[in-house]
TrEMBL record:
Top-level taxon of the source organism: Eukaryota
Taxonomic classification: Eukaryota, Metazoa, Chordata, Craniata, Vertebrata
The keyword Membrane is assigned to this record: yes
Protein name: Claudin
UniProt keyword annotation of Acyltransferase present: no
Amino acid sequence: MASGGLQLLGFVLAFLGWIGIIISTAMPQWKMASYAGDNIVTAQALYEGLWMSCAMQSTGQIQCKVYDSLLKLESSLQATRALMVASILLGLVAVFVAVTGMKCMKCMEDDQVKKMRMAVFGGVIFIIAGLAALVATSWYGNRVARAFYDPFTPVNTRFEFGSALFIGWAAASLAMLGGAFLCCSCPRRETSYPPTRGYPKNAPSTGKDYV
């Protein structure tokens, strides 16, 4: 029962992490304009994401523009996109594999060994998906930080970490933690020894056997 509870907890955490990765990928707030400096502009807030850039006016109206051409984007941004999409697809595969191996599901009940292996395999895929998202968000955040502290970057064009990065980091951590729980939920095989055979007791000899 304890391993079943750990398995369910791992799946819930990994699934929430996968949902968070999807949300982070779709959000445009991967980096936001920084107003640290002498030139403070309060008329609008600028955001940039993996798919579009947005500007929020002082009235609260938000205008977004999708990037025109894929070929005009930086190679690092294209690589970040690819890693996040790969993380989402791996998470989708992990969901189906892990659900098949869950103890509360009736699939593959006749073969418990294969069922446990499916759960562990789903956990491994969740860990890989979380690692892909963690690499993508950390790489993107590193580029934002380097550009912010670059003395040659104009003050009015500097960006800071957006909320999508923090969501991505948290989601990647949840996916990896949940995958680790799924991998640890497999119970250890207990060593079974063959039952000891009792030796037949010799019947007491009587004097009638001898002549």
